[in-house]
Prior knowledge:
Layout: H1 3-13, H2 16-29, H3 35-41, H4 47-60, H5 66-75, H6 79-91, H7 98-106, H8 118-122, H9 127-140, H10 147-154, H11 163-170, H12 174-184, H13 190-201, H14 206-215, H15 221-234, H16 238-242, H17 250-258, H18 265-270, H19 277-287, H20 291-294, H21 299-309, H22 312-326, H23 331-339, H24 345-357, H25 361-369, H26 376-391, H27 397-408, H28 431-434, H29 469-474, H30 482-487, H31 490-493, H32 499-509, H33 525-536, H34 543-550, H35 558-575, H36 580-592, H37 595-606, H38 614-618, H39 626-639, H40 646-649, H41 655-668, H42 673-686, H43 689-699, H44 701-712, H45 721-731
Helix pairs in contact: 1-2, 1-44, 2-4, 2-45, 3-4, 4-6, 5-6, 6-9, 7-9, 9-11, 11-13, 12-13, 13-15, 15-17, 17-19, 19-22, 21-22, 22-24, 23-24, 24-26, 25-27, 26-27, 26-33, 27-33, 33-35, 34-36, 35-37, 36-37, 37-39, 39-41, 41-42, 41-43, 42-43, 43-45, 44-45
Amino acid sequence: MNVNQALSSILRDGVDIHRCAAAQALGAIGNTASVDILIEALLDEDEDVRTDAAEALLVINDAKAAPKLLENLIGDPCFEVKIAAVQALSKMQFQEVVPWLKRLLVRHDEEINWDEEEFYQDGWDSWVDLQVEAIKSLAALSVEEAVPDIMAAIDDDEGQDLTEMAFESLGRLGDAGIGALIHYLNDPESRRRRRAVFILAGLPDEKAQKAVQVAVMDSAKEVRISVIKALAKNKSGEETMAMFFRDPDVEVRALAVAAAGVGATEQLVGLLDDPSPEVQAITIKKLKEFSEVLSQEGMAERLADKLQNGEPAVSAQAAEALALGFGVQSQDLLITVLQDPEIIEETRLGALRGLSKIVDFASLEAMAAILGDDTRQLRLEALSQMAKIAASEQECADAAENFLIAAFNGELVEIPEGGPEQEMPEVIHDMAELEQPVDAEELTSDSDPGENSLEALGPESKEDYPTSTWAAIMGEQGPQDGRVAELGNIKENRVRLTQSDMELLALSARTPKKGRVNLSREIPAYSDVPQFAARVMGDIASEKTASALAAQIESKNEQLRSAALDSLARIGKKMGRLPKDAVQGLIRVVANADRDNRLLAVRALGNSDATECAGFLQNRLVDGDSFVKTEAIQALSRLGAEIDSLDELLESQERSVRLAAAEAHANVNNRDSVDKLLDFAFANEGYHRRDAGRFLRKVNVEAANDRLVAVLQDEERRREWPVAIEALAEINMNMT
């Protein structure tokens, strides 16, 4: 018995839950051989089965089922069945459904069977949903004579708002539909005019385009904006778009400029002197797409003037345009702007992005020089641009890579005196006391049980007892009193406060002053430049970069270490390998680091193509952290190594570990893989049946199908049938 026969048998004779699952599976598989049994299921006593059967027929799209689906539309009281039938019939282009769709537009037709108790039970009238589906289906069937009926439904004051969906359908109904949309351009409600003109602007019809040109002068701004958005979406109507360049509203002009095409370049040049800085900035941004316009006579002077005297947004765009249009000729001016701390940040950022378009050593030097600037956004943008150049195949890629490595190693930003050893925030406790090691003897169970008991604290009067949870935690006199102060005593409470904890406690002890809250603290350049350089270096597929990163993966700086490890993993994925020094460093990190860094290091080793470290990674399979174990399984699988304890890992309590082990089994694809994955599908109450089906599809479809069909024929395993049915659906999905 094949898969289709087994599922058909269950759909015909199974219990309701199995029949539903079988109908869904047959629809997912999409085999036309199952059409007959699905047609039979349209008469099932269970409405859920009928719905699933109708939806399956919608997917299979066989016209043989159309007459029976029409019968269900008319006679089945379940609205889910009706909706599925309408969708299927329109997809099949079954014209006999048209009269019934027209009836659904206006009311509960008496010749159609309805669930009379539905509204009283659920508080919802399903005809509302059917009306929407009817309009969509009439458009799909190209029924132009239905336009008056659709307009009547739109204009029904007591009906639902159909304009957004119905106008789209009218646009598909030929001349009659276009005429209806033009009619709504004169509607007093701007919302209807806006939606109608959006559809018309996307139609190639001459009448529609003439109507759109009239709408350019509409009094409502949102209508004019709708025209612009539609023309931009369809990349049409350049003449109509140019009419908006003279619009009195700044937002409309700006949107029109942003959507303008190559035919409007001359008019765009004129907008460089628009009274609105927003329009000027967008105009320059648009002109950057047309390099031949930027190189016109007199343009260099105009752009330089905008750079030096324009508003920040304008000057930033002008800087990039100068670089694109005039290259090295504009380099000195851009470097001057970039290095001037008195110039506003946005303008300097524009100059920086402009220099990134002039790829030579002088530009890279200017970017490197700015890494010590007080403006953090400039520093990060400079590193980002250098990384893009280094990852490219341009002439200066090697130089950009060297600058990044130098920045990562802290060679480009000087550390001020006392830099890393900054004065710590005021804390509650003495640091030396907190860093004292805890005596192991004090942690044994032999210590006096009353030492830290409530009785040892002595009697408390009602006046001393805290009056709120906050007072109990913080104390009446602030964090120096109360439970927070108690927690600071490591020997009594066995709690070691981290540096972050102490900083937060110090903040809580401060008396807030009036003024604006600082949402982010200032980060010195010598601190964040190496860290961000480490992040962006992951985009450079280079052994030199990988070796530089590997030298810092055991750094005391936790953030630098994590960034370097993450980038090494990305480089390994790009290159398919890592240099030996990086592999050796990663092995040390896996053996000694905390969980987060172990995780990143294992991931990087999996991308290193270093098969010699497979044995070492095997030891990570007993790691106490499930994420590390998962990453180790995936790493070993990528290295093509045999995983000794794979069967045990399939039974792990952690979901991610089980999934990784199952995928590794699928990648191995040996004789036992099908059996192991089938056991995995049925384990844990079939929790992973879909995942197992996906893996089995890669291993052996025929063998998996045979064994799952055998389960469906075993009455003693009836409880597992839903698992087998869904697994079969996943394995055979869309295979026909």
